[in-house]
From TrEMBL:
<feature type="region of interest" description="Disordered">
    <location>
        <begin position="151"/>
        <end position="171"/>
    </location>
</feature>
<dbReference type="InterPro" id="IPR021373">
    <property type="entry name" value="DUF2993"/>
</dbReference>
<protein>
    <recommendedName>
        <fullName>DUF2993 domain-containing protein</fullName>
    </recommendedName>
</protein>
<dbReference type="Pfam" id="PF11209">
    <property type="entry name" value="LmeA"/>
</dbReference>
Amino acid sequence: MRRTLTLLALGLVVVVVALLGIDTGFAINAERSFARAFVHPTNGNRGLPFEPEVTISGFPAFRSVSDGRYSSIGITARAVPVYRGGTCTVGDPCHADLRTRLRDVRVDRASITNPFPQGAVFMEVGSATASTTLDSVAMGRLLEIDDLTVNTPAPEGRAGGGGPQDGLLSRTSGVLLTGSVSPRPGRPDVKVSVTVDLSAVGGALRLVATDFYDGPEEHSETTVAEADRRAVLDRFSATIADLPMAWGATATSARSSGSDIMIEGTPRTQTWDPGLFLTAQDTEIYMMYTCLSDGQLHRPPC
């Protein structure tokens, strides 16, 4: 009797594991099918240069795939080119990670064997969010500070702040930037650490350097002469417009995320076609303080 029960239990476990494996296979196939649609879009739209990461949430996946209805789909397109004349060129672009989360998704003409029909993938989406992430290297190139690093200081006034319990730190103000800049034309670069406030203004990422950092985090302790302080801070202040976002979303907020800078927004599109995921836009940089020399406008130092 005991042996029979053991065999039945083992058989049940095998069946459950097999069903889970089959269901996972349906989910993986659907994710791959959806990812391919972003590389080969329809209607002449510009696709991504490579397949994005697609994650389909919900269990069982078989029901979602067969019905063409998904509670949530996450999409991450990594290393999307960002162009800006002079520093991020077509031949040597900067890069950003674009993320979006779609909820209450319905795919037209879907089937269990063809979850996202190639050639005509159109969706109905209940709600969506979008974000674009720039790492320290991309931010340094956009600000023309080659050795720029980004750091999110730990919460102040709390024992153990910044430990594993805090997860990935995030701030909108007091973000720590460290890099080498010249206080005046012809003067050698000095490596400094400054605090920066982040915001989204008119859909653009705005950085405003507020002060020099002297806190507990690792930083440059270089002392800047009083006469040069404003010019040095200005080198870390800028407005970066037209950064690419998923589905042409407009940035409504900005924050740090560990050693990255992130903008976030809500897509407003009514047409959910993978070919419209990426909108070709040139990035423009407007320094917060512009200088005039010999009749020409240029960025600080003046």
